[in-house]
Specification:
The complex is a heterodimer of chains A (299) and B (227).
Chain A lengths: L1 H21 L31 H8 L2 E5 L2 E2 L3 E2 L10 H12 L7 E5 L5 H7 L4 E7 L2 H4 L3 E9 L1 E6 L14 E5 L3 H8 L3 E5 L2 H9 L5 E5 H10 L4 E4 L6 E7 L6 H14 L2 H9 L19
Parallel strand pairs in A: 1-4, 1-5, 8-9, 8-10
Antiparallel strand pairs in A: 2-3, 5-12, 6-12, 7-10, 7-11
Chain B lengths: L1 H5 L1 H34 L3 H15 L3 H14 L9 E3 L2 E3 L1 H28 L2 H9 L4 H31 L11 H11 L4 H29 L4
Antiparallel strand pairs in B: 1-2
Amino acid sequence: MRFTRTRTMAVTAGLALAMSACGGSAGEPATGAEGAEAPEVEVVENPEFEAGTKMAEIAEAGKITIGVKFDQPGLGFKGAADDVPTGFDVEIAKQIAGQLGIAPEDITWEETISDNREPYLQQGRVDLVLATYSITDERRQVVGQTGPYLVTGQQVLVKADSDITGIADLEGEEVCAASGSTSLENVETEGAVPAPADNYAACVDDVLNDTVPAMSTDGAILLGYAAENEGELKVVGDEFSEERIGVGYSKDAPEMCEFINESLQSSFDNDTWAEAYQFTLGGEGIETPETPTLDDCQA
Amino acid sequence: MRLVYENLDLLVRAFGYTLLFFVVAAVLSLLLGTLVAAMRVGPVAVLRRAGAAYVLLVRNTPLLVVLLFFRFAGPKIGLTFSFVDLDLGQWRINNIFASLVVGLSLYTAAFVCEAIRSGINAVPVGQAEAARAIGLPFGGVMTQVVLPQAVRASVPPLASVQIALLKNTTECGALGVLEAFGRMRSFTNNDPGQRYGIFFVFAAVFVVLVLALSFVANRLERRWKVA
């Protein structure tokens, strides 16, 4: 009897220990430039939509599922200990959800990697995709895309002591980028040897330990990594591509396009867009760009 | 599928990398695997134990873990292959390629060793004893008498191991070399509308490659059959 009790106590103590270990703080947000404040999310109360539209359906349900990336600091990033992702894509997603009357805490964040964005939209597993989703004609044949809410270009990240001054110096050299991404394609178009990696963090490692001379993707992401490894990495060269990052939605609900554009336009107009930019991608010496011009919705 | 036809050169280069991985790793793994098998059946206790430990360790580690070790952990502890830098036409054999080939070869060698050992077990004990009786040393017993018979019996399992190796090369597509699998991903990312067609073409080429391999294995089996 006594033996059993001792054992029960030991188990309880072990459990308590394990639980306290899990309760560690999630730490500071992974992004957020100094001094910048998180933009306010306007949650519309009882928004009105035409009956039968996708917007009415989502607003009625009171919840929405949004696909974002988890591995792009500043745009869409979720650390191992974080509960929710952070970044510019995430802030814009919150603004759009707010227009549907959905508070940030009622959003379900689904990780969408480059490969599964279209299938997830087609299967209805996510309602919207804001995952550094470049607008292209080929993608528009499969899913709906509107925006752009951000226009960026690709640059090159190299070691701080490297002589490379831009993509032109890297002809015939390996350049790392995430496999299946537009960045990898662009690197190849520029004459470099594409070296695919699972994600951009792996590329950073490769550059740091000299496996590849450089990596390349959107300048905004590279600046984030350069800041993380100050004195070891630097961003060089001009932007050599133009990515128009937009919002993906299902082709079954074309009425979403007008709504998304209106939401984006209102966040441009009331400065929440600029605040989101400063909060996530901004920093010392980085100017907030002009708001992009939205594409028209094809009826 | 149209996208694939328009980019046939990219498809050829991708499968070229797949085949390069396969050929180099197949040769290395067969050599190393045979050596380890000989160690495991040899008379020296230390070598026997070392061979057994190698097989136990490598065979129980997932391939991806082995590859990640050589690809990412290796460079951190100074294990780089930066001396490798070859240009074969449009194919580049660089440090990344070398580290992945080493991982693939070491992993496959453990399975080759066990396939060969099963073949050695199929050789009657009397054969080895007779070889020893005429005064052959261990090396002679293995190379002149036991292995020639063992390899015959190991052809079917060895073919399976090498077919697995061919398909395992796809793991390199996410780790730094744009081989078939990596190229398939960038194709589908470029044009998600043609997802099914692209998948079909890549799967079909793999089927053809595996069929070719099993054909060769079949021929060998027939030719070496004991009359």
